[in-house]
Amino acid sequence: MDVMDVMDVDSADVSLMDSWAEEEFGTAKLGDARRTKRLIALAHTFGTRPSASLPDAAHDPAMLKAAYRFFDTDAIEPAAILASHTRSTYDRCASVPIVLAPQDTTELDYSHHPGTDDLGPIHTKKHVGLLLHSTLAFTPDGVPLGILHEQVWARDAATFGQLPDQHTRPFAEKESYRWAHGLDAINAAHDACPTTQFVMLADAEADIYELFVADRRAGVDLLIRAGQNRRVDHPEARLLWEALPSGQRVGTHMVRVPARAGQPAREAEVTVYRQAVTLQPPARRAGAAVEPVTLWAVWVVEAKPPAGAAAIEWLLLSSLAVRTDALAQTIVAWYCVRWGIEIWHKALKSGCAIEARQLETADRLRRCVALFSVIAWRIVFTTMLARACPDAPCTAVLEDDEWQALYCHAHQTTRLPTAPPRLRDAVRWIGRLGGFQGRNGDGEPGITVMWKGFQHLAGLTSMYRLLRPAPKERNVGND
User: Fold this and answer.
1) How is 67-110 classified by DSSP, letter by letter?
2) Distances in Å between the alpha carbon of 252 and those of 151, 257, 273, 328?
3) For residue 309, how many other CB atoms are within 10 A of its CB?
4) 20 and 45 in contact (C-beta within 8 Å)?
5) How far apart, in whole angstroms, are the C-alpha atoms of residue 46 and residue 51?
6) CA dihedral defined by 408, 410, 416, 419, rounded to 10 degrees?
7) 472: which DSSP letter?
8) Beta bridge pairs of residue 318
9) Neighbour tally for 264: CB within 10 Å
10) 51 in Cβ contact with 350 (< 8 Å)
11) What is the C-alpha separation between 421 and 424, in angstroms, rounded?
């Protein structure tokens, strides 16, 4: 798959557009055209210094006042802030045949800001904050195309930790219904991009029977890691895990396991099995008009993990008919793309310091989260696109002033090249601004050095705009 089709880049002189912020937020409908212009200005300003505090990132008191006024405007819904970006995401999705759409939930911890109104408990009653559930779009190569859906809420402290009527409450009234909202967003994306196949990815939290039987468009499929040992209709087993050894052995496969809880990232050799399984409805749905559902199980097992490392074992359930070994291998590779949403969480929390924002109310924070979610996406997008399309022109993600300032700094020259540099080169230069060493074995720049590098690039670009010669005097195209 040529990921550059996503950006419609076919020559060196075509850029994403004059302003990435205008591309992502230019069609936002916020009730007043001036609010849309303000949103674009805020995205551009805070996108250049994503981890700085709002006062530090704003270049003057007027900009800071505009930011606070924007976040305090009750008439602006967070969903309206994201809607423009999601429309741009649809455009990118429409340019590729397959989109992987991981969902995930993360906590935004504001316990250190106890004066903030309308927060709720997160993992304990002593910790307060917000919950963020998102659905993103990725290419199978791991390039994030954008945000399809985002839901931010606070739990009720009065009922936190209680499980009243969990087995009898309607699914739509449970917190877990967020996964259905995400699936609805994927259906909507397919409506906008009918020639693109969408595959929802999720971890074991989404092992919910109602999701397996929920309405889906013909071009929308599920790939969910199993977390429950469900009853199955199987000739050799009563429960799902008992049926696994009877599956068709596919062979071995190498997967990249990200760093976890003190364990370094590593490559793992796993054995893959596949078979169709028919899941019986859960007992809590007894008497309801719910039929058994047939899915395909792809069992992934690591036989010889390194010393001190837990062995990998995934049971992946998919609505895709995994009738071939090749598709089973593809399913495993696709599931690994789910980790991309966790990288985006890191960019949002560390790169954009979203948990350090002090805005006094949960509603203001929700608007702030919507804006910085897209800024975090841009950081990850730039990083991953450079890996997938290293030879693309850097104008796919950088404005002219940005790459020109970057080039002049990297080469300590005022003479510009005849064409924009390759994306891989530009990303490595940005990474070096953030501390990337570029030594043999270092690989490509990661998210942390990229968001640090973007902040340094902002200063370079500002100075370049002040000091560069007038257009007719510039030394463009003399190298």
Assistant:
1) HHHHHT-TT--HHHHHHHHHHHHHHHHTTSSEEEEEEEEEEEE-
2) 38, 15, 9, 11
3) 14
4) no
5) 8
6) -140
7) G
8) 223, 296
9) 10
10) yes
11) 8
**Contact by Cβ (8 Å): 96, 190:** no
Q: How far apart are CA 264 and CA 235, in angstroms?
A: 41
In sequence order, the 6+-apart residues with CB closer than 8 A to the CB of 269 are: 252, 253, 254, 302, 303, 304
* Tens-digit pLDDT profile for residues 41-62: 999 999 988 999 999 998 889 9
Q: What is the pTM of this model?
A: 0.89
CA 207 – CA 222 distance, rounded (Å): 11
User: Which percentage of the chain shows pLDDT scores above 70?
Assistant: 91
pLDDT band at 236 (very low <50, low <70, confident <90, very high): confident
Output 472-475 pairs: Cβ under 8 A, ≥24 positions apart. Answer: 474/416, 475/414, 475/415, 475/416
| Sign, CA torsion 66/69/71/76 | negative
Sign of torsion, CA 410 414 415 420?
Answer: positive
Amino acid at 85: H
pLDDT digits (tens, 9 = 90+) for 139-156: 999 999 999 999 999 998
CB 362 within 8 A of CB 61: no
What is the rounded distance in angstroms from the CA atom of residue 409 to the CA atom of residue 324?
A: 52
Distance CA 93, CA 195 (A): 10
